[in-house]
Specification:
The chain is built from 6 helices and 9 strands. It is an alpha/beta fold.
């Protein structure tokens, strides 16, 4: 599947066993919703191994949310289910369309020789005039603060700049939902903050774009409107970033106490 293309898979939306009360928000205003989603794989002996267990979450439209949890807890797998790249074994998923999945490593996504050509790449199938294409590319690059790099060869960009070009590649197709898999893992602090700020700017300047951002970095939570915390394939917390941050820090402190005792 071409992950630069907006996905069109759709599954039905059912009512809501989530961990937080969003009654004030109308059902139409959730851009991302999963209801009791599970995902299992068969191992080489044919035994079923659960990877995602009974995960429910709701993310309001226009917000920037983060998905956190220890290594191997299932973040990327859940993100791929939300992107339509994997089908859940059980449960329901509703994600507003078009949606786009942006890879951790921008070298897997940035494919054309120049920034302009790369961002325009996904527009080929839309039958746009060259003026329309130019306008859309300019708008997407401006949103991520990369318009001045229009003519730059992609291989001369830093990791953070490539990530921003990859985000522009999703925005240019007017995606409503961006699913972003650990974009800052390979970046230094300056590029990390640059990519997060580009994301925040994108959401504030675009109508109705919602982003779910997988990260390991607790300090990135301060930029989020909401957060989901997973452990062992399950969503264990879902809601206010400050509450989730306090809870993760408390868990870390208790692990440290156990190690030191
Ligand atoms: N196709 C598969 N077959 C077997 N095991 C799998 C498969 N896909 C994922 N897993 C396992 O499921 C678990 C969750 O993987 P996933 O990549 O979703 O975790 P993660 O939270 O994103 O991890 P990380 O933070 O290290 O990137 C891991 O133990 C992984 O090895």
């Amino acid at each position: 599947m071409n992950v630069r293309a907006p996905f069109c898979a759709s599954t039905p939306l059912h009512s809501n066993p989530t961990t937080r009360n969003y009654n004030a928000i109308g059902a139409d205003n959730f851009a991302i919703e999963s209801q009791r989603v599970s995902y299992s794989v068969n191992n080489e002996r044919g035994k079923m191994i659960p990877i995602i267990r009974d995960c429910s979450l709701k993310i309001p439209s226009g917000q920037f949310w983060m998905l956190l949890g220890p290594n191997g807890c299932g973040k990327s797998t859940l993100l791929k289910i939300l992107a339509g790249l994997l089908s859940p074994t059980d449960g329901f998923v509703h994600v507003r369309k078009p949606r786009s999945y942006v890879f951790q490593n921008p070298d897997h996504q940035v494919v054309m020789p120049t920034v302009e050509a790369d961002v325009a790449f996904g527009l080929g199938r839309f039958n746009l005039t060259s003026d329309e294409t130019e306008l859309r590319v300019a708008k997407a690059l401006t949103a991520v603060g990369m318009y001045d790099f229009l003519q730059r060869p992609v291989q001369t960009l830093s990791g953070g700049q490539k990530q921003r070009v990859a985000i522009a590649g999703a925005l240019v197709e007017e995606c409503k939902v961006l699913l972003l898999d650990e974009l800052t893992t390979f970046l230094d602090e300056t590029d990390q903050i640059g990519v997060i700020k580009a994301m925040k700017n994108t959401l504030s300047s675009s109508e109705d774009v919602t982003a779910l951002w997988v990260t390991h970095r607790l300090e990135e939570l301060e930029y989020a409107d909401g957060a989901v915390y997973m452990e062992d394939g399950k969503v264990v917390m879902h809601g206010e970033p400050s509450i989730i941050m306090d809870s993760i820090e408390a868990r870390r402190a208790s692990y440290t106490d156990i190690i030191n005792s």
